Amino acid sequence: MHLAKEEKSMETTKAKVIQVEEKYFLVIDAGDGEIRIPLSDDKPIEVKSAFNKLLTRIKAGVFKIELEGVGDDLFFQVAKEYVSQLNKEIPTIRTEMEKRGLAAK
Amino acid sequence: MKIDIHTHTRKCKSGDAPTREISPENFCETILSTEVRIIAITNHNVFDLAQYTEIEARLGKEAQVWPGIELDVTHDGSRAHLLVIISPTLAQDFAAAVTTFTKGATPDTFAATIEEVLAGFDAFGPLYVAHYKQKKPSLSDEALAKLLAGTKNPACVIKEVTNSISAGIYISHGHASIYGSDIHDWAKYDEVSRQLPDLRLPVDSFEHFCLLLQKDPTTINTTLDKKTPEDLVLIPFDDSSILKVRVYDDINVIFGPKGTGKSCILKAIAKHYSENGIDATVYAGANERLEDIFDTRGKDLKINLVDHSISYCSDEIDALRKASEVNVTSVLKYKSHFASNATNRNAKKILLKDLEPEEESGAKQEFGDFNGAVTKTKAYLEFLTENSAVKKELTPEEHQQVTGILQGLLDRLRKREWASFVVWQEIRLMNSAIKLFRAEVERKSATPAKPITTGFRDYALNRITIAAHAAEIVKCVDTVIPTKTEIVGSLGPNKGELEYRTEFQFQTGDIVDSSLYSLTNAKKTPQKKFITCVRKIQQHAYADDLFQYIAELNEIEDVEDIKTVNELLLFKRYFALSGAYYTPSTGEASMVMLQKELGSSKDVYILDEPEKSLGNEYISEVIVPLIRERARSGKKVFISTHDANIAVRTLPYSSIYRCHEPTGYKTYTGNPFSNNLVNTVDESDRLDWKKISMKTLEGGEDAFGERGKIYGNDKS
What we know:
The complex is a heterodimer of chains A (105) and B (716). By secondary structure, chain A is α+β, with helices and mostly antiparallel strands. Chain A has one domain. Chain A has helices at residues 44-60, 74-99; strands spanning 11-20, 23-29, 34-38, 63-67. A four-stranded mixed β-sheet of chain A has the order 3-2-1-4. In chain A, a hairpin with a 4-residue loop joins β2 (23-29) and β3 (34-38). The longest helix of chain A is centred in the C-terminal third of the chain and has 26 residues, at 74-99. Chain A is globular, with a radius of gyration of 15 Å. Chain B folds into four domains: 2-214, TIM Barrel; 228-278 and 605-715, Rossmann fold, CATH 3.40.50; 281-328 and 455-601, no CATH class; 334-452. Chain B contains 25 helices and 23 strands. In chain B, α15 runs antiparallel to α17 and α21 runs parallel beside α22. The radius of gyration of chain B is 42 Å and the shape is elongated. Chain B starts with a strand and ends with a helix. The relative contact order of chain B is 0.10. Classes of the chains: A alpha+beta (105), B alpha/beta (716).
């Protein structure tokens, strides 16, 4: 259906789902800190802030998020899907950064 | 065109330097590399016909070579040198005459009296050039008187002096004078030739030159008319009287006492040309301000940023000001999707909804690449097929080969273009179908569909676009534009060239130089705030507070004045000497304004007393050569002047003399070549050009003569 793409070896960063009291978060390891995305509440400002950190991380280099652990609970499923979609979007964003000359070499 | 009436090609006397020797081939090569186009060969007491004939043949029509000899003459026991130059048509007879004349003597021992020279050569109608005063060994005034008395053509007796200054002074005293190189070392001829006299009138031949010396009116008029004469009919004065003058595409001088209407004539000339669509304005230097002429305030200053590879960034600035945040997908949609049980049987059967959408940007990019390559290849192929220069350069076989290869490439690119288009559209179709089915299943089964995207991609691309726009603007304003330096003119040998500098600088956010002006209507404070804000936007492109700076940008007062980076430009224009700021004095301002006027490209230059505030040395060394150069280029130069350097030394093709007498105003026209000034309404009323020039411009013959005595004797 589409042109085959060469699989490239890509840096991996770990992510996990954590629970703080009643709230669930997807926590991504950003090297010099963590990126926290709320899963149980609709908090777009916090999501955007997390996206900004992801952008800064992508600027340094493309990477893949690997969700740790297994489970069938609701928020793990949400996180799994969310991470899956982020992983598809990250290379496109990195490519665009490179095209615009904004990515770190 | 320069003339050299005194050269040597052979070492004839024992005292002659060997560097006077030159072969015909080298002689011609040397002469033709200079501006000299008339040259006389005048060896000591020798005329070498064979050498002369070879040189004449080699030069052809490129230059005139006149046969001659430098004779040792004796008078009253003293020895002097006298050049005898004759027409090239008489070279053979001249050679025979020289042989007879010098028989029995060597060049070292030969000497003749004035009477013998006249007897031997006057029948050739020669040009006599006698060493005079400081040109040693010189002929005495008595010997010259004898020569003048004995020759049948006294107008062709000229005195040879040492240089142009002496020649100018002696000519002013009524002596027909000239100077030649008397070359001692041909290796230095290029340098020496630059000092040789220029011929103001074109000289066709030796005979023509002699006629001009005799001030033959027909010859002079015919020669003058080789330039384009134009008869102007002017009404310069309030009494509506008509003034008819003949002018030339050369130097035309108007002179006379103050208050005789010279400026009115210039204005009438300007009006005449302007009405005929020719750019002609009267330049009156001292009346105009240097700052206005050079537009130091930059009223009309513009710059094309593209010339400096700088983008105007209008799209980037517009986009930055309109930028807004992109929303992200609510995580609750994921939660809702996974929390609900998809119980609807039909919904479960529709598997398409469970497919994951595919990222289409890669496929879109690939299609874009091939599409672009097809467009460019096709255009280039069309160019090669149609361009006549290409067809002319390539043989039909080569042309076919090149176009064949390109056609093959185009066919392959088109196939790839189509294939990539199909892939891209397939992805789009599939994604669209997935989206549609998910929406339909959600609607029909009340089961929330799985979100297609987190929204990160669009959110990120929006931020990246903002960052790119800000980066482009910052890159542009951080570009250094080289200072434009134009040479305004010379302030004389001591100070050197006055420069006029234009510095452009973008407001980078930290410039506080009050001598810089804004190039456009945009004010300096908004400029500074604007670029400071854009830098912050660039720095905060991936930060939570980005849109705070976008808002700040839009709140800047008069921000709407800044539509491109051109509105962020500052400039300063100033005069400089050797790169340092310099404020020219009034006199220096006059110098540079006049040079600028004469340096501008025009067909007609009209100068009203250009000598105002200028020193004599400057007029003589800078302005007179500039005026002559304009005239040589076939431009019409009209000058009203009280300065003898300009009125006399430029040897104007046309002189217009205005004066006032008890009976009223009078206008005379003439030229220095005929030495006549003729009343425009009464041909019988004639004046001596030289005497009138001296009277009007130098305070009279006595005063001029006095100055000649003071200066001339020291310098000649």
